[in-house]
Design goal:
With 562 residues, the chain is mainly alpha-helical. The protein has helices at residues 8-24, 36-50, 54-66, 71-83, 87-100, 105-117, 121-133, 139-146, 155-168, 173-185, 189-202, 208-219, 223-235, 242-254, 258-271, 276-289, 292-304, 309-322, 326-334, 342-355, 359-372, 377-390, 394-407, 412-424, 428-441, 446-459, 463-476, 481-493, 497-510, 514-526, 530-543, 548-556. Among the domains are: 1-153, Alpha Horseshoe (Serine Threonine Protein Phosphatase 5, Tetratricopeptide repeat), CATH 1.25.40.10; 222-305, Serine Threonine Protein Phosphatase 5, Tetratricopeptide repeat (Alpha Horseshoe), CATH 1.25.40; 308-408, Serine Threonine Protein Phosphatase 5, Tetratricopeptide repeat.
């Protein structure tokens, strides 16, 4: 294989260009290599976008891509499909993009990411090896540099990929560190700690693995150990780095030692004046301390310098809301258009509009934001469906969930929510049909099996099928209190009161829930254990005074509680 060698910098610039594209591009319904057929499909896409019909939009975009050899058009279609979470389409378009532009590192990386999403780990591994082979430096250094651009949300899959490279580069501190970091993101803290320590063993002077160990300890709820570790490291340095002091500040913040955290940040700013990350952290600490005026000044400084603008707008929105200035809060929350607080902020805007008696405007805001920022389209659709439920717009809510199901048939949570809404509307046969469809599509999903079995128990006399479904769910997740509760409940319905009580009490011991408690009380009443049932009802009324299940049971047997 003859591969042209490139520098790490040139590869990363190419990679960064596609990442930047994904954050900054709006939908551009144009093509450089445009013919009449392509234009017609793009017109279809434009109409679909105006109608908020994203499935129709992406299908038209795919047809436009297939009718043209325009690389930018295919790149845009691939990016859009990925942002809309239409994973299979995104994978197909990624392959076409690379076919049209075979030398593109951006296209190769995009394909690697989509292959990870699809759990095609061997294919992703082979393509990542190709990308590494293009550099003129050490492959393990390029590997570490490329890892942040692997954007899959599923760290289990990413870990499977990186693990392969730990075997190839078992003497590379960079690869061990990358694997430790990925393990940490997935919550595998013990393994992450081991690989971080291995990276330190391979290069004791390298600071990053030591900072990673601090973060792993913090996420493992070992705050004091984390503080002692990083404080000891800083104490052994002649000139501690800003990164180390920030890590210590974060450790202090996790333990609510905010003044100590502020001390570390202040020390950074004394030693190195131009440190925007330190200013950001100081602003957040001041916010947590309740010193909103100081926090406002810090965030204003960041905003004016165009540094961490999304964080600045988010916190300035929160401060405005705390101070009762809803107009200013709305303005700042609207401006949070990317980052980890974007979804929360836009839902906040919608809810604030609704609280101002403008429900229609609140829903419209979510739709427009999802239309303008494709990365958040799915989140906005989910938020819209949820808000429609809260507004008691039941028909519209059901339509919203039907829409989500049509977009994402593999996400069972939308199907379950739609079925619940059908039950709430007393559309029992439709609901049971929906549960049946879900069970056929997800025959090994314990949540689906349990939900279907539980609903059959309560809304049909097909106890045999209900018991079969719940037992199957238990095989896949035998420690789940919701499933154990369902098992106890079907045993009760079939007259096995003693066994039912054992299972229900087991479920309650795992998760103290009022619905489970109401089931236990009902079984006790049926078994004529009235004193025990009465004592438990007193406890339930004290713990859950407004709970629907407890109050319904209380009203059903009034004489027992006297």
């Amino acid at each position: 294989m003859n591969i042209e060698k490139k520098s790490i910098k040139s590869i990363l610039l190419s990679v960064f260009s596609v990442l930047l594209f994904s954050f900054t591009s709006s939908i551009n319904l144009q093509a450089q290599d445009e013919n009449q057929t392509t234009r017609a499909h793009l017109n279809e896409a434009e109409i679909a976008l105006s109608e908020f019909n994203y499935k129709k939009l992406i299908e038209a975009y795919v047809r436009a891509s297939e009718s043209s050899n325009d690389v930018m058009l295919t790149k845009q279609a691939a990016w859009l499909a990925n942002n809309y979470h239409f994973d299979e389409i995104a994978l197909s378009l990624a392959k076409r993009w690379l076919y049209l532009d075979s030398d593109s590192d951006s296209a190769l990386l995009f394909l690697i990411n989509r292959q990870i999403d699809a759990n095609l780990i061997i294919a992703a591994k082979n393509n990542l090896k190709k990308l590494l082979a293009k550099n003129e430096g050490n492959a393990d250094e390029v590997f570490l540099a490329v890892i942040p651009y692997l954007t899959t949300a599923d760290y289990n899959k990413l870990n499977n990929l990186i693990y392969y490279f730990t075997k190839i580069y078992n003497k590379s501190e960079y690869v061990q560190y990358a694997y430790a970091s990925s393990l940490m993101q997935n919550g595998n803290y013990d393994a992450a700690f081991r690989y971080a320590e291995k990276a330190i063993t391979l290069d004791e002077k390298w600071e990053k693995p030591k900072l990673l160990i601090t973060r792993i300890l913090l996420l493992s709820d070992k705050n004091e150990q984390a503080i002692n570790y990083i404080a000891g490291y800083i104490g052994n340095q002649i000139n501690p780095s800003s990164a180390a002091r920030i890590e210590l500040a974060l450790a202090y913040m996790s333990s609510d030692r905010l003044d100590d955290a502020l001390g570390q940040v202040s020390q950074i700013l004394l030693e190195k004046n131009n440190q925007p990350e330190a200013v950001r952290l100081m602003a957040i600490i001041n916010f947590r301390l309740g010193d909103y005026d100081a926090a406002w000044l810090d965030f204003s400084e960041l905003l004016e310098s165009d540094l961490y603008p999304m964080d600045a707008k988010f916190y300035m929105g929160r401060i405005s809301e705390i101070k009762g200035n809803k107009v200013k809060a709305l303005e700042f929350y609207r401006g949070v258009q990317s980052g980890i607080n974007a979804v929360y902020s836009q839902i906040k805007v919608s809810n604030m509009m609704i609280s101002l008696n403008s429900g229609e405007a609140g829903i419209k805001h979510l739709r427009n934001f999802g239309q303008q920022y494709p990365k958040y389209m799915r989140d906005m659709l989910i938020a819209e469906a949820s808000i429609l439920v809260s507004l008691d717009q039941k028909i519209e809510a059901r339509e919203a969930y039907k829409n989500l199901i049509s977009y994402y048939p593999n996400d069972y949570s939308f199907g379950l929510r739609f079925a619940e809404l059908l039950l709430d509307a007393d559309h029992i046969s439709e609901a049971l049909h929906q549960y049946s469809l879900l069970e056929k599509r997800h025959p090994k999903n314990p949540d689906v099996l349990n939900a279907y079995g539980y609903v059959l128990t309560n809304y049909s006399d097909d106890y045999k099928k209900a018991l079969t479904l719940i037992k199957k769910a238990l095989r896949y997740d035998d420690k789940n209190p919701a499933i154990i509760d369902s098992y106890g409940w079907i045993l009760y319905r079939t007259g096995e009161y003693g066994r039912a009580l054992i299972e229900l009490k087991k479920a309650f011991s795992l998760y103290e829930d009022p619905e489970i408690m109401s089931h236990i009380i009902e079984v006790l009443v049926t078994m004529n254990k009235t004193s025990e049932a009465s004592a438990l009802m007193d406890e339930a009324k004290n713990k859950y005074p407004d709970n629907l299940y407890i109050n319904e049971l209380y009203n059903r047997y009034p004489l027992i509680w006297e």
